[in-house]
Design brief:
The chain has 590 residues and is of the alpha+beta class. It has three domains: 15-168, no CATH class; 173-216, no CATH class; 327-358 and 369-393 and 420-503 and 510-590, phage-related protein like fold. It has helices at 63-66, 110-118, 177-189, 193-201, 206-226, 239-254, 272-282, 292-302, 305-324, 390-394, 398-425, 457-468, 492-499, and strands at 15-20, 32-39, 43-47, 50-56, 70-73, 83-93, 96-103, 123-137, 143-158, 166-168, 334-338, 344-350, 371-377, 380-389, 482-487, 517-520, 530-534, 542-547, 554-559, 565-578, 584-587. Strand 3 (43-47) and strand 4 form a beta hairpin. Helix 3 runs antiparallel to helix 4, helix 7 (272-282) crosses helix 8 (292-302) and helix 9 (305-324) crosses helix 11. It is flat and about 90 Å long.
Length: 590
Amino acid sequence: MRTALLLRESAIQLEHRDAIPRPRTFDETNLTIDAVIASTTPVRRRDQRGEFLEVLDPTGLDLAVTRGASVLDSHRQTGIDNVLGAIDDVWIEGSEVVARLRFSSRPEIAPVITDIRSGIIRNLSVGYAVDEWKAGKDASGIRTMTAVRWSVREASFVAVPADPTARTRAGVTNVTGDDRAIRELGRRTGASTARVDALIELGASIEDARRAFLNDMLQRNVVVHSSRSEHNVITLDNPEVFVRAAGEALYQRIAPNATPSGPARQYIGMRIADLAGETLRRHGISTTGMTAETMITRALHSTSDFALILGDTVGRTLRAAYQSAPSGIRQLARETSAQDFRKKSRLQLDASGFTLTKVNETGEFTMGTMEESGESYAIDSYGRIFGISRKAMVNDDLGAFSDLSRRLGQAAGAFEAQFLVDLVVTGSGNGPTMSDGKALFHTDHGNKAASGAAPSETTLSAARLAMRKQTAKGGGLISVTPRFLLAPPDLETTCEKLLTAIQATNTDDVNPFARLSLVIEPRLANATRWYLVADASEIDGLEFAYLAGAPGPQVETRAGFEVDGVQVKVRLDFGAGFVDWRGWYANAGA
């Protein structure tokens, strides 16, 4: 009997990004060349929901999988003749992923290597697979998808490039007069830094560069007339890019430690009135003879860009404060997303009671069932509107609204934490009512102490034993492992002493709870009640959700009508609920 051999050319659908080689890094002895194969620069892509910005997070790259990946000819995976070499090494430098490509010494590919060394073959495309995405939005509200776990599976030399932000690594070179002249000419003609660097790396003369820049200018002019919708997508001529860059520059005055991006650098240090004047000039309005007050007033009523710039700055300040807002209970909950405002149901399949039975002599298998249990909760919208007065803008008083937005960010973080605490302590401390009609903490759930007592070795041991003996709906043991001790600040010292690891000299001195992490939540008003909690990544428990694509507080702005200035609306689409009781245990304390 012959066994069929099944072949699969590619098990994974790969995404691709391209690079422009710089031959000066070519090592003749080792047949290697360095390349920046990825960076944090967003790339526009499209899925069933429309356009989005794809971002590769260098810290999420699986270096072990990437090392050793093949270097191919034009992504051809059908034969070993198409293998040109391998990725010898890969490492991360800041926001860039750098790889060293090593070529084969096979005689038949020597002409290809010669063309790569001389710069004739210049385009390197990397194929990568993403294992985990994180959805979000950038400062302008554009949808983003960030690859937080990914790996490079192959790299190919191709005919047509796609991603100009990835490039091969340049070696250390001497800056010549031609180099300086090329850079100056590139600046005056609007050429990108990548384009200028590529010409210098190829050893272009000033005449070569002049012809290249002229050709680029003519090509840009053709693109403008043939496709207005794609004009200057990533340049300051694009209003979205300008708003983001100006807002970032204004934020840098509030947070001097913030590192501005390239587009934002030309606006660093500008006053609010200066930015108002810039928005007017971009819309063809002359600012000659205008005072600061006049430019601000005209900008508020002539274009939406000025209000959006202020909103971008407020959003950056608000998010920084929101992310730094302290919360103990938040780390005990699992973050998810909701597609809409309807109830979000969690269906849990329980296989613990699904037992195997002996198959009888006739070979008949008996039917089994899997128990289902489900909890649900919904998200809702919360928010406030506040105004930035025209007087504050004329006075260039950044503190007048940065302090307010910072406090609003802290308030949003505190609101979420209080929301979670209220869930835990509702029902006179017994928690919300679950789908079985009983409170979260209930003796029938096996997660509530029969009588209250302070945290001690005895009470912690009893709580841990109760969690270990938890059963699923089908009746089978699930052995929940406690990970956190949640307590109010009144019990902080007691709990710290209890959980402190002891260098034991005999078995009686061993601390059996040294692996528990103490979480203090100052919003817990009951001074005696404490909780033992399992890791949310291991078992369902407390869960919170944001509207998909809008995590955390979102900012919108418009020129004020009710107020003389700019109105800023902060909205938070948020909800939370308990989806299981087995990962939590409560003791009323004493």
